[in-house]
Every structure is written in C-alpha cells, then in structure tokens.
Amino acid sequence: MSMLAQIEAKILDWDAASQKVREWQALGEKVVFTNGCFDLLHYGHLHYLAQARDLGQRLVLGLNSAASVSRLKGPHRPINDEHTRIWQMASLQFIDIVVTFEEDTPWDLLQALQPDILVKGGDYAPESIVGADIVLGRGGKVMTLPFVEGYSTTSIEQKIKNS
Question: Helical H runs in 11-162?
C-alpha cells in the first residue's frame, strides 16, 4: 500500500471509526482518545500525542472541524484548513485514526466511540474533561498529561503577527 493510501486509511467517519475501535477492543487492545484543534502543529503537540499513544495500543484523535475551531478560537482561526490538519494528524505514526467532529465538544463522538482511556492536556482537571462520564461509566480511565512549556499555537500566531 502506498504511503498516501496508508495515511488516507486512517481518516475515518464516525461509523467506521466506531467499528474499528470495537474490533481493536475485541482483540484486547486499549484504545486511547484525545481531541483538539491542532491548528499549527508544534513540538508540544507531538510530545503530547506520543505520550497519549503510550497509554494504550491505539490512539484515536478527534479533530475539531474548521467551523468548530472558529467558534472556539475566533474568526481568525483555524490558520491551517481542515484538510491540511486532517492529513497532518493522519501522517503521524502514533495516530491510528483521525475523525472530525462539528460540535464544540467531542461528547457525542465519545458516546459513539466508547474508548478505554480519555486523555487531555494538563490544564484540565480529570473530572471536568468532556466525556469523562462516558469513559468512567464503562470502567475506563481519564487522564491528563503535562504541557511542554514554551509551545503553543497562540505564541506561534503572535510571533508571526509581530514579525
């Protein structure tokens, strides 16, 4: 299979992603889920995503759609279009599925996927993470990972504006 085909095979709709998650879980694999905008990909993102993948055997990334990013971050975002962000994420070896969602939160997507582990960055308290009720309700884990200081999309955006 070509590299482009391998990348494209990771980009799934909700139904296909749910089916794949169930297949992996039936094989005893732990499925980790995280989500975000991942607009300007940087070292902090890569570090976080690699750590998230280490928590299980599979990593599913819920990616905010362009409309969702604009509602959350403002009309000037996303900087990278949705297609680019999807392909960047699917190109990463430690991500197994990329699935987009239109809503402001991934709650409905988490309800569909039913992952074993839900992980977010360290600025969240585990009990306040959207979807924690879903994952904990099925006996899963909710975790946070520390941020890598000095790396953020906002700081990159400011640096570009100021140059």
Answer: 14-26, 43-53, 66-73, 82-91, 107-113, 132-137, 153-162
Tell me, rounded to whole angstroms, the distance of Cα 56 from its chain centroid: 14
By the 8 A CB rule, do 70 and 156 touch? no
Question: From CA 151, how far away is CA 10, in angstroms rounded?
Answer: 26
CA distance 69 to 66: 5
pLDDT, tens digit, 9 for 90 and up, residues 118-131: 999 877 777 789 99
pTM for this prediction:
0.91
Instruction: List the strands of the sheet with 97-101, edge to edge.
Output: 97-101, 58-64, 31-36, 117-121, 141-145
For residues 153 and 136, give the distance between their C-alpha atoms in angstroms, rounded to a whole number.
Answer: 30
How far apart CA 126 and CA 11 sit, in angstroms, is: 28
The pair phi, psi for residue 82, each rounded to 5°, is -60, -45
Retrieve residue 43's tokens: 């070292």
Distance CA 83, CA 80 (A): 8
